[in-house]
Amino acid sequence: MPNIKFEVEEPHYVPYNVLGIDDGGFQLFNFRWAYVDVFGVIMRGKEFTEDVLKTSILIDDPDPTTKIISMVEESNKQIHAILHQGITIGGFGILDADRIVERLGIPFVVMILFSPNNS
Fold first, then answer.
1. pTM beyond 0.85
2. Cα(94)–Cα(87) distance, integer angstroms
3. Ranges of each domain in the chain
4. What are the residues facing 49 on neighbouring strands?
5. What is the pLDDT of residues 59-99, one digit of tens each?
6. Domain 17-25+33-93+101-106 belongs to what topology?
């Protein structure tokens, strides 16, 4: 049987910088904890961590969107999209996805693991 070798080219992809954000842990109803840290990790492609960002917001902050926008703008990094699981952060702080997109000019992707129970 002849020895046949196949050469497979790696798929060509353009690495984009994507920022994933999430809040750190906090204790609900512990009044000594007024703030929660919010972290952002910028990934270039799927293998390279470009940077780590951090800010703090009030637990149940009425306007966490402003802090997230400031964190991204102050980073001076080229970011092509922002990912976040759900629409709340730091307890019941609701992120305004429309305002983030309008201000930063990049997509804001909300990931939901389970379908909402609408019954």
1. no
2. 6
3. 17-25+33-93+101-106
4. 43
5. 989 999 999 999 999 999 999 999 999 999 998 999 999 99
6. archaeoglobus fulgidus dsm 4304 fold (3.30.2170)
